[in-house]
Amino acid sequence: DAEITQSPRHKITETGRQVTLACHQTWNHNNMFWYRQDLGHGLRLIHYSYGVQDTNKGEVSDGYSVSRSNTEDLPLTLESAASSQTSVYFCASSSRLQETQYFGPGTRLLVL
Amino acid sequence: SQQGEEDPQALSIQEGENATMNCSYKTSINNLQWYRQNSGRGLVHLILIRSNEREKHSGRLRVTLDTSKKSSSLLITASRAADTASYFCATDAMKDSTLTFGKGTMLLVSP
Fold first, then answer.
1. Contact flag A42-B44 (C-beta cutoff 8 Å)
2. pLDDT in tens, A2-15
3. Which of B33, B48, B102 sits opposite A42 (nearest CB)?
4. Counting Cβ atoms within 10 Å, is residue B89 exposed (0-12), middle (13-18) or buried (19+)?
5. What helix, strand, coil percent values describe chain A, rounded to 5?
6. Taking a C-beta distance cutoff of 8 angstroms, is the pair A48, A34 a contact?
7. What is the C-alpha to C-alpha distance for residues B41 and B75, in angstroms, rounded to an integer?
8. pLDDT, tens only, A34-64
9. Start-to-end Cα distance in chain A
Protein backbone atom coordinates (compact mmCIF):
# COMPACT_ATOMS: atom_id res chain seq x y z
CA ASP A 1 0.00 0.00 0.00
CA ALA A 2 1.12 3.54 -0.72
CA GLU A 3 2.14 5.55 2.29
CA ILE A 4 3.89 8.65 3.54
CA THR A 5 6.58 8.29 6.19
CA GLN A 6 8.53 10.72 8.30
CA SER A 7 11.81 10.31 10.12
CA PRO A 8 12.87 10.64 12.78
CA ARG A 9 9.64 10.43 14.78
CA HIS A 10 11.27 12.19 17.72
CA LYS A 11 14.28 14.50 17.78
CA ILE A 12 16.02 16.50 20.47
CA THR A 13 18.58 19.04 19.34
CA GLU A 14 20.37 22.11 20.60
CA THR A 15 19.93 25.73 19.63
CA GLY A 16 22.02 26.64 16.62
CA ARG A 17 22.34 23.14 15.17
CA GLN A 18 21.18 22.26 11.67
CA VAL A 19 18.41 19.69 11.60
CA THR A 20 16.87 17.85 8.67
CA LEU A 21 13.52 16.11 8.86
CA ALA A 22 12.78 13.53 6.19
CA CYS A 23 9.52 12.95 4.35
CA HIS A 24 9.04 10.13 1.86
CA GLN A 25 5.87 9.24 -0.02
CA THR A 26 5.11 6.31 -2.28
CA TRP A 27 1.85 7.74 -3.65
CA ASN A 28 3.73 9.25 -6.62
CA HIS A 29 2.09 12.58 -5.78
CA ASN A 30 3.47 15.74 -7.32
CA ASN A 31 2.34 17.98 -4.46
CA MET A 32 4.04 17.85 -1.06
CA PHE A 33 3.66 20.06 1.99
CA TRP A 34 5.28 20.71 5.36
CA TYR A 35 3.24 21.98 8.31
CA ARG A 36 3.98 22.67 11.93
CA GLN A 37 1.38 22.17 14.64
CA ASP A 38 1.43 24.16 17.85
CA LEU A 39 -1.13 24.57 20.62
CA GLY A 40 -3.26 27.60 19.93
CA HIS A 41 -2.18 27.89 16.30
CA GLY A 42 -3.43 24.75 14.62
CA LEU A 43 -1.54 23.68 11.50
CA ARG A 44 0.53 26.27 9.69
CA LEU A 45 2.11 25.81 6.27
CA ILE A 46 5.91 26.07 6.17
CA HIS A 47 6.90 25.15 2.60
CA TYR A 48 5.36 23.30 -0.29
CA SER A 49 6.31 21.85 -3.65
CA TYR A 50 4.28 21.17 -6.78
CA GLY A 51 6.91 19.00 -8.41
CA VAL A 52 10.59 18.24 -8.84
CA GLN A 53 12.75 21.35 -8.54
CA ASP A 54 9.74 23.42 -7.42
CA THR A 55 9.59 24.89 -3.90
CA ASN A 56 7.44 27.64 -2.42
CA LYS A 57 7.28 29.49 0.88
CA GLY A 58 4.30 29.13 3.14
CA GLU A 59 2.96 31.20 5.99
CA VAL A 60 5.83 30.47 8.43
CA SER A 61 8.88 29.79 6.26
CA ASP A 62 11.52 31.86 8.07
CA GLY A 63 14.33 29.63 9.37
CA TYR A 64 13.31 26.67 7.20
CA SER A 65 14.27 25.42 3.76
CA VAL A 66 13.25 22.54 1.49
CA SER A 67 14.56 20.96 -1.67
CA ARG A 68 12.82 18.65 -4.16
CA SER A 69 15.21 16.52 -6.17
CA ASN A 70 12.75 13.67 -6.85
CA THR A 71 9.03 12.99 -6.64
CA GLU A 72 9.16 10.89 -3.47
CA ASP A 73 11.07 13.11 -1.03
CA LEU A 74 10.76 16.59 0.45
CA PRO A 75 13.27 17.05 3.29
CA LEU A 76 12.78 20.00 5.63
CA THR A 77 15.92 21.68 6.97
CA LEU A 78 16.15 23.96 9.96
CA GLU A 79 19.27 25.95 9.17
CA SER A 80 20.00 27.01 12.76
CA ALA A 81 17.50 25.56 15.18
CA ALA A 82 15.79 27.93 17.61
CA SER A 83 13.67 27.17 20.67
CA SER A 84 10.70 28.71 18.86
CA GLN A 85 10.93 25.84 16.37
CA THR A 86 10.03 23.29 19.02
CA SER A 87 6.90 21.81 17.52
CA VAL A 88 5.30 18.82 15.85
CA TYR A 89 6.02 18.73 12.13
CA PHE A 90 3.77 17.04 9.58
CA CYS A 91 4.44 16.24 5.98
CA ALA A 92 1.58 15.74 3.54
CA SER A 93 1.09 14.98 -0.12
CA SER A 94 -1.71 15.21 -2.65
CA SER A 95 -2.32 14.25 -6.24
CA ARG A 96 -4.55 17.21 -7.05
CA LEU A 97 -4.22 20.73 -5.78
CA GLN A 98 -6.81 21.91 -3.25
CA GLU A 99 -8.01 18.36 -2.70
CA THR A 100 -7.34 15.49 -0.31
CA GLN A 101 -3.99 15.60 1.46
CA TYR A 102 -2.44 12.48 2.96
CA PHE A 103 -0.47 13.11 6.13
CA GLY A 104 2.55 11.43 7.62
CA PRO A 105 2.66 10.44 11.31
CA GLY A 106 4.59 13.54 12.36
CA THR A 107 7.97 14.37 13.90
CA ARG A 108 8.17 15.79 17.41
CA LEU A 109 11.10 18.20 17.59
CA LEU A 110 12.45 19.65 20.81
CA VAL A 111 15.06 22.41 20.56
CA LEU A 112 16.93 23.01 23.83
CA SER B 1 -3.66 33.91 9.07
CA GLN B 2 -6.49 31.49 9.78
CA GLN B 3 -9.00 31.06 6.97
CA GLY B 4 -11.18 28.56 8.80
CA GLU B 5 -12.18 28.69 12.44
CA GLU B 6 -13.92 25.79 14.17
CA ASP B 7 -16.51 26.12 16.87
CA PRO B 8 -16.72 24.95 19.61
CA GLN B 9 -13.09 24.55 20.66
CA ALA B 10 -14.04 21.50 22.71
CA LEU B 11 -17.10 19.26 22.88
CA SER B 12 -17.90 16.49 25.34
CA ILE B 13 -20.78 14.08 24.72
CA GLN B 14 -21.97 10.58 25.60
CA GLU B 15 -21.83 7.61 23.26
CA GLY B 16 -24.87 7.47 21.03
CA GLU B 17 -25.36 11.22 20.96
CA ASN B 18 -24.80 13.36 17.89
CA ALA B 19 -21.86 15.77 17.66
CA THR B 20 -21.99 18.95 15.63
CA MET B 21 -18.98 21.08 14.83
CA ASN B 22 -18.96 24.31 12.87
CA CYS B 23 -16.41 26.02 10.66
CA SER B 24 -16.46 29.62 9.50
CA TYR B 25 -14.18 31.06 6.86
CA LYS B 26 -13.43 34.45 5.41
CA THR B 27 -12.83 34.32 1.67
CA SER B 28 -14.42 32.55 -1.28
CA ILE B 29 -13.43 28.91 -1.67
CA ASN B 30 -13.44 26.09 -4.20
CA ASN B 31 -13.69 23.28 -1.65
CA LEU B 32 -13.94 22.75 2.07
CA GLN B 33 -12.56 19.65 3.72
CA TRP B 34 -12.83 18.05 7.14
CA TYR B 35 -10.01 16.07 8.73
CA ARG B 36 -9.72 14.02 11.93
CA GLN B 37 -6.63 13.75 14.12
CA ASN B 38 -6.31 11.14 16.80
CA SER B 39 -3.94 11.95 19.64
CA GLY B 40 -0.32 11.73 18.53
CA ARG B 41 -1.19 10.89 14.92
CA GLY B 42 -1.31 12.61 11.57
CA LEU B 43 -4.48 14.06 10.10
CA VAL B 44 -6.85 11.81 8.19
CA HIS B 45 -9.14 13.13 5.48
CA LEU B 46 -12.84 12.61 6.18
CA ILE B 47 -14.84 14.40 3.52
CA LEU B 48 -14.61 17.11 0.87
CA ILE B 49 -17.51 19.34 -0.15
CA ARG B 50 -17.32 21.56 -3.20
CA SER B 51 -18.55 25.14 -3.31
CA ASN B 52 -21.50 24.18 -5.54
CA GLU B 53 -22.67 21.49 -3.11
CA ARG B 54 -24.86 22.13 -0.08
CA GLU B 55 -24.77 18.80 1.70
CA LYS B 56 -22.76 15.60 1.59
CA HIS B 57 -22.93 12.32 3.47
CA SER B 58 -20.35 9.66 4.23
CA GLY B 59 -21.42 6.91 6.60
CA ARG B 60 -22.25 8.57 9.94
CA LEU B 61 -20.88 11.92 8.74
CA ARG B 62 -22.99 14.70 7.33
CA VAL B 63 -21.42 17.91 6.08
CA THR B 64 -23.24 21.05 5.07
CA LEU B 65 -21.89 24.11 3.34
CA ASP B 66 -23.47 27.56 3.23
CA THR B 67 -21.36 29.76 0.97
CA SER B 68 -23.56 32.80 1.60
CA LYS B 69 -22.72 32.61 5.30
CA LYS B 70 -19.20 31.28 4.67
CA SER B 71 -19.78 28.42 7.06
CA SER B 72 -19.83 24.65 7.21
CA SER B 73 -20.95 22.10 9.76
CA LEU B 74 -19.86 18.53 10.44
CA LEU B 75 -22.39 16.25 12.09
CA ILE B 76 -21.35 12.88 13.48
CA THR B 77 -24.40 10.78 14.26
CA ALA B 78 -24.59 8.06 16.90
CA SER B 79 -21.11 8.87 18.16
CA ARG B 80 -18.76 6.22 19.52
CA ALA B 81 -15.82 6.38 21.91
CA ALA B 82 -13.59 5.79 18.89
CA ASP B 83 -14.75 9.14 17.46
CA THR B 84 -12.76 10.88 20.22
CA ALA B 85 -10.32 13.05 18.28
CA SER B 86 -9.69 16.58 17.07
CA TYR B 87 -11.53 17.67 13.96
CA PHE B 88 -10.23 20.31 11.57
CA CYS B 89 -11.75 22.11 8.66
CA ALA B 90 -9.51 23.11 5.77
CA THR B 91 -10.28 25.63 3.07
CA ASP B 92 -8.57 26.61 -0.13
CA ALA B 93 -8.31 30.24 -1.14
CA MET B 94 -9.40 30.59 -4.74
CA LYS B 95 -6.29 32.59 -5.65
CA ASP B 96 -3.92 30.10 -4.02
CA SER B 97 -3.79 26.32 -4.30
CA THR B 98 -2.80 25.61 -0.72
CA LEU B 99 -5.07 24.62 2.16
CA THR B 100 -5.52 26.61 5.35
CA PHE B 101 -6.50 24.68 8.46
CA GLY B 102 -8.48 25.91 11.42
CA LYS B 103 -7.41 25.34 15.02
CA GLY B 104 -9.74 22.40 15.44
CA THR B 105 -12.50 21.11 17.70
CA MET B 106 -11.54 18.55 20.34
CA LEU B 107 -14.31 15.96 20.64
CA LEU B 108 -14.52 13.66 23.65
CA VAL B 109 -17.03 10.83 23.48
CA SER B 110 -17.54 9.09 26.80
CA PRO B 111 -18.82 5.52 27.08
1. no
2. 899 999 999 999 99
3. B102
4. buried
5. 5, 55, 45
6. yes
7. 22
8. 999 998 788 999 999 999 999 999 999 999 9
9. 37
